[in-house]
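Session log. Operator J.P. requested a structure for one protein chain; no other inputs attached. Running the standard single-chain path with token output.
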Amino acid sequence: MTSDRRWVRVRRGGVYLLGALVSGVATVLALPLLCIPRFARLWANWHRGRAGRLLGAPFASRPALHATGRRAWADPVTGRTSRALLWLPVNAITGVAFGLPALLCVGNIVVAVIATPLWWAFGLEDRPRLFIDVAVTGWATAVTLGPLQILLLTALAYVGFPPIARAHARICLVVLSDSTDEQLAERVAVLTRTRADVLDAHGAELRRIERDLHDGTQARLVAIAMRLAVARQAFSDNPQDEQFVEELLRDAHEGTEEAMTELREVIRSVYPPILADRGLDGALTAVTTGCGVPTRLDIDDLERVSPAVEAVVYFAVAEALTNVTKHSQATAAGVRVSRTADRLSVLITDNGTGGADDRQGTGIAGIRRRVLALDGTVEVDSPAGGPTAITVELPCGW
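Structure written below.
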């Protein structure tokens, strides 16, 4: 992991832990209100989504249920109300236990930052203290203990914030995780939705191909046929008018080349011929070489991969790099393709401005639809200010 990405994780972990502390205190203060099943589910679902985003777990958050009456209290179908109510004391305890050390760490870093140059501005009785009980009474203490406290606590945050935040997030997901039946039902719902998306996309793709062939290639072939018919008739009526016949044949020849070009474009949009000609390695090399941003490509030995998986990887990388060129303002990008057992992983990164969101029509939604159609997953880590990392995982076992 690069240093920049590590510091991003430290920052996210610190923000998560401080949020957990605030959430734990708020749970205690608003306990009577949160004991109402609907609010408990909303509160639990917010925490579940927050923990899922930190861990990069897709589908971690879910819409809150809107049950009323006796069903709201018992919730026999899903069992989520009981887990949401259980999460209240767990969150109050773990939020304070995990968040308070983070607050002390950040707070003492701030104290040291202020005390080092400004210790003299405080009164004798109010002098700031470093390392808990060492009063700053002179420049020697300030310039030695102040930076040392900043360095030690920053190192502690660097090492401790990410794993502690992940530990709290895992506790949250464990407490709020679905039963086996609920996971199966949710999985069926996801597959049903992705199947509908695939059918819609397939229908739209067929309509596009039909439109391209009808309006482009077919129209050109009809024009070619008409020119050849006119040329044939002109040659039959007046064999001496060679110039007119030659012009018609030249137009027919040019139209044939244009029709062949359009037909190749249609075929390329269905299944890129470069995949069949050069394989996934060669196809991705061509995509990264042609990207408007300098892009590094790393591909492991993938062994045998199905054509469907290759096509999804190709289109995902091509679409992601197109987004990088158009929207990210990046100066460098990278593509990493690896395989572990029966899972193929693709990591696309850039050092741009971040903020990628599939709800804004940046093309990530199309990547997600293609990947979900093969029962894969897509994770997008793109905080405002960057960097961006898109991780695609696909099953590729035989």
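Operator note: Residues 183-270 form one domain.
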